[in-house]
Amino acid sequence: MIRFSLHCEKEHAFEGWFSSSADFDAQCERGLVECPVCGSRQIGKALMAPALAVSRQTPSRPLAMDPERREALRKLREMVQAVKQNSEDVGDRFADEARKIHHGESEARGIIGKASSEDAKSLIEDGIEIAPLPEFPDDLS
């Protein structure tokens, strides 16, 4: 999975996870990617810095947010909570259960769980729609 820094036509910044750059392009063309702040579907990728390994000894840095970003984060937290409350947690059986649902071998329902990056890639390649669910530290609000 690849994390992209995204922005809408109104310059609201947010992130999205995709299996590839082509997957991002395809989802945008189908109107599946939208701004969590304003709902715009005119989305572009922002320039990204490479990911760097950081020592656990490095102190964490707080993120200063303007009211608009704080509200977007609050809405994202609410969305994640709603997904969790309305889904069955199947744990490590996620990939198997997602395939069973896709093939009609199991009841169609929302599920959450854990999958390796290889399993997630395989599900996407098989046309099974999945998405990573962000996790938030409990101490942030």
Structure description:
It holds the Pfam family DUF1178. This is DUF1178 family protein. InterPro entries: DUF1178 (IPR009562). This protein has helices at 21-29, 67-85, 94-102, 117-125; strands at residues 2-8, 13-18, 43-45, 88-89, 111-112. It is α+β, with helices and mostly antiparallel strands and 141 residues long. The protein is globular. It starts with a strand and ends in a 16-residue tail after the last helix.
- The chain-level mean pLDDT equals 81
Write down the overall geometry: globular
Q: Uncertain regions: pLDDT < 50 for 5+ in a row?
A: 49-55
Number of discrete helical segments: 4
N-to-C span: 27 Å
Work out the strand percent. 5-15%
Give the radius of gyration. 17 Å
How is the main sheet built? 3 strands, antiparallel
Give the helices and strands as they follow along the chain.
EEHEHEHEH
**Widest sheet: strand order?**
2-1-3
Helix content: 25-40%
- Coarse structural class: alpha+beta
Beta-strand segment tally = 5
